Fold each of these.
Amino acid sequence: MSLENRVILITGAGSGLGRALAVAFARQGAHLFLLGRDQKRLEATDDLIRQAGGKAGLIPLDLETGLQRVPEVAKALFERFGRLDLLVNNAAITGPRTPMDAHCPAEWQAVFRVNLDAPFFLTRELLPLLRFSNAGVVIQVVCEEGVAVAPFRGAYGASKAALLHMTRTWAAEIASGPVRMHAVDPGPMATPLRARVFPGEDASRLPRPESVVSLFARLADPAFRGEHGQLLTPESFARKYSTDDS
Ligand SMILES: NC(=O)c1ccc[n+]([C@@H]2O[C@H](COP(=O)([O-])OP(=O)(O)OC[C@H]3O[C@@H](n4cnc5c(N)ncnc54)[C@H](OP(=O)(O)O)[C@@H]3O)[C@@H](O)[C@H]2O)c1
């Protein structure tokens, strides 16, 4: 399996899972586009990629306020490579820890803007480019809160539930076409997001985001022939594909 010369865009690439994926994919020879709202954090990911011998383009973009710039991103990618092989909609915010009836509407909307509207707009604008790939893949990053009820994290859970539903619907609609779409719940990981949600937790006991990179790499591999439109976790993926991924 190799991602040599694959063209990959990852949102939220300045930290956590997004950074781990970007560095690992660059190490395998992919061309990375790192999208995030904080230029300095993107540059730090870029430094790690350079140290690993890879290369990346930076796309500083706030997905809460800057979605009107997404067509520009698609145009720039088209002009540079003429295609996109993998889009990972990874960026997310959790919003405040609060009961449903105390949610401030602006904070509620910000969570939906980043966690649902951004994956929708990016997927919609970049699908034509993914269709120019020989094996275009979209991975939407979801989480347990989008499936099971998590009191006081209602905006986060509802936005991820909607993202999962969007993914299943979209995957069904494009099933006969060339692009594959998956929802991945990476499970608990020691990242800044997790530390904000569970401030007292001992992060050293949690899996590191690097531990789930191989699942994403398998889905991105043009040779992967697994099911389309599924919700995958590291455990369900290992059960289904540990001996046979084709
Ligand atoms: N960590 C877990 O235990 C866990 C479990 C299940 C699922 N997940 C999912 O995994 C994904 C990655 O999260 P993570 O744990 O790696 O957390 P993280 O390190 O906080 O990563 C989230 C990224 O999204 C970026 N982001 C947030 N708002 C943005 C905006 N308005 N515009 C552009 N980028 C924005 C963040 O940028 P800043 O650095 O500027 O904030 C950050 O780089 C998320 O979709 C999350 O729901 C995580």
Amino acid sequence: MANRPERETSRANKPQLSLHVPEPEYRPGSEEVDFSGIEIPEAGAQPRPDEACDPSETVGLCTDLIRVLGDDNKAHGPWDPKLDPDTLREMLHHFSLVRAFDERMFRGQRQGKTSFYMKCTGEEATSISTAMALQPDDMVFPSYRQQGVLIARGYPLIEMINQIYSNSGDKLKGRQLPIMYSSREHSFFSISGNLATQVPQAVGWAMASAIKNDSRIATSWVGEGSTAEGDFHAACTFASVYNAPVIINLINNQWAISSFSGFAGGERATFASRAIGYGLAGLRVDGNDPLACYAAERWAANRARTNSGPTLIEFFTYRAEGHSTSDDPSGYRSANEREAWPLGDPVARLKNHLIELGEWDEDRQAEMDRNAAEKVKKDTKEAEKNGILGHGMHQPFHTMFEDVFDEEPWHLREQNEESQREREKKYPDGVPH
Ligand SMILES: Cc1ncc(C[n+]2csc(CCOP(=O)(O)OP(=O)(O)O)c2C)c(N)n1
Ligand SMILES: [Mg+2]
């Protein structure tokens, strides 16, 4: 009793508490967008520790920004991956293809051929350049904006379009939201709409790979907004505790639909610095610098592959377009942000680098872009032969209940039979399919 503090009777003299609600700097109508507060270090100025280093040696890199391509379009410093011109042109070709693909699929949605599409404009390097730094059979657990990974892995565009149209050629039989691809052959795990679930899955897969003494590593991609989910933090803990051979790619494109990065904790600390508390190696990378993206991913892959530890990489970038075809960003952010973004456009930066090397020119670029658009157009037409959204039911109805379990359990069989009975009632003149 004696130690109990006296009960307060009045709070009148106490400071009033207040809640901080983050607010983005610019909203629609902001004419002057000024990103000069973002610190952009010199390309080539960041140290490159040994891939097998202790995570503590990467602490400085969690607040720095790894950059290779300078304003002079040349590659600089210890992170220069020294890729040969053919590899750089291959990367540029994937960039060109993904941009043409995004354009056409976006238009397809507007024409009613599919219900949904998501572009990755401005973020191409975070999926294409990183995928190129991995082995083709490393397992990837992507989010929904990594179509570049599939394109870099040579997945047929026509299969992607079939899935987007949910048509009779769709290998996923219309069961997934458009763009939520899956390909076992391309070591590409099924995309889930439940944000961040892919991160613990990647860590778990990596742990299993280690348990089996396999040599394949796992990688995951997660948006900065999604890191506010508990799954992300559980995944970091498991990755660190078991030294899982995994890379967590955190794509900080500043926006999570209409919420800015401040709502996921971006105001107080960089996203890469989450790594420090978990004992993970952490890197913060210019996500619009294709060479830096490649180099960082390769560093982390080599580290994982040699049991040296997992890595969290923040790719600092900007979502140049709307969140999806269901979104209109002019309702919540300034239209001038895209132009003002200080890290430029990844496609233009790679193109200019190749030109600077004397290995490319504008005419060849125009031809590459034309060919990419032609290829996408041709494959779209081909896929359309398998049907588009709303033009009939492209998959037999009963398939809805199949393939989840090896053997259909009794309760699904019951539901399947009931659904057939309902349909017979609804369509007395003959059930479609
Ligand atoms: C668990 C969960 N919460 C919310 C949503 C709705 N949602 C879909 S995308 C999205 C924004 C995610 O933003 P971010 O992680 O930054 O990825 P980005 O879209 O920028 O690539 C939200 C809130 C969801 N799909 N799943
Ligand atoms: Mg985001």
